[in-house]
From TrEMBL:
Annotated gene: LOC106766885
Entry's Gene Ontology molecular function annotations: L-ornithine transmembrane transporter activity
Official protein name in the record: Mitochondrial arginine transporter BAC1 isoform X2
GO (cellular component) term, any one: mitochondrial membrane
Compartments, record wording: Mitochondrion membrane
Principal cellular location given in the protein's record: mitochondrion
Annotated organism of origin: Vigna radiata var. radiata (Mung bean)
Keywords: Membrane, Mitochondrion, Repeat, Transmembrane, Transmembrane helix, Transport
Family: Belongs to the mitochondrial carrier (TC 2.A.29) family.
Signal peptide (from-to): none
């Protein structure tokens, strides 16, 4: 059924909406603070990296629980995986049963791995985005203001898409470890992502650590391109200046 392809999507959509607004808001404010309130045209890694890493760390507290629910909803796809008696009827049911069986801390299982993924990944994402955007704006001359918006959208698509690809190429192994930690039925399973990845590497090699790389990269470019274009358009509509 088509519905099965979107299992766990509700919590993911909620998480992404909150994540996006939080991340870009915190990133912009932190970046401005580290720049001393002064606009700077040249990308500065000493500003971009800590701003993005800090923002990623903050949103991980939202993403951790929502992704745990999403992952647990997704793995109950067939009777052979999860018996009907143990299935979750909704994301809320999943959250409540998790808290009931594992306590409040259970809903934050894999939180440290999520924090690492978001901090490192977003530092890479924003660095690639800011540098690609700066270079493209510096080298593309627009002869007419009529084409200015189209050029900005094109640059946003390229810079955002490449940033998203950079994010996942860097931290996909951490995402693999996070998913294994969050979906392991054993409440006492190892929580150290590097220990989990070491086990995966011993069983399946480097390929196992990058499981799902193709679909992830295929999604990363258009998804992040759309996110960046939406963010940049929102800034223009709100008349908010940026570098």
């Amino acid at each position: 059924m088509i519905k099965g392809l979107y299992r766990g999507a509700t919590s993911s959509f909620v998480g992404m909406a909150v994540e996006g607004s939080l991340f870009f808001g915190i990133y912009s404010q932190t970046k401005m603070y580290l720049q001393g309130g002064v606009q700077s045209g040249e990308p500065r890694p000493q500003v971009i990296i800590p701003s993005a890493a800090y923002s990623g760390a903050i949103i991980s507290f939202v993403l951790g629980p929502t992704e745990l629910i999403k992952c647990r909803m997704q793995i109950q796809g067939t009777d052979s995986l999860v018996p009907k008696s143990s299935r979750y009827s909704s994301p809320l049911d999943c959250a409540l049963k998790t808290v009931e069986t594992e306590g409040v801390k259970g809903i934050f299982r894999g939180g440290c791995t999520t924090l690492l993924r978001e901090s490192i990944g977003n530092a890479v994402f924003m660095s690639v985005y800011e540098y690609v955007r700066h270079q493209m704006h510096s080298n593309i001359k627009v002869s007419s203001s009529n084409y200015s918006n189209l050029v900005d959208i094109g640059i946003g698509i390229a810079a955002g898409g490449l940033g998203g690809v950079g994010f996942w190429l860097t931290v996909l192994p951490l995402d693999v470890a996070k998913t294994l930690i969050q979906t392991n039925p054993d409440k006492n399973c190892p929580r150290n992502p590097f220990r989990v990845l070491s086990s995966v590497y011993q069983r399946a090699g480097l390929k196992g650590c990058y499981a799902g790389l193709g679909p992830t990269i295929s999604r990363a470019f258009p998804a992040n391109a759309a996110t960046i274009v939406a963010w940049e358009l929102a800034l223009k509509m709100l008349s908010i200046r940026r570098d």
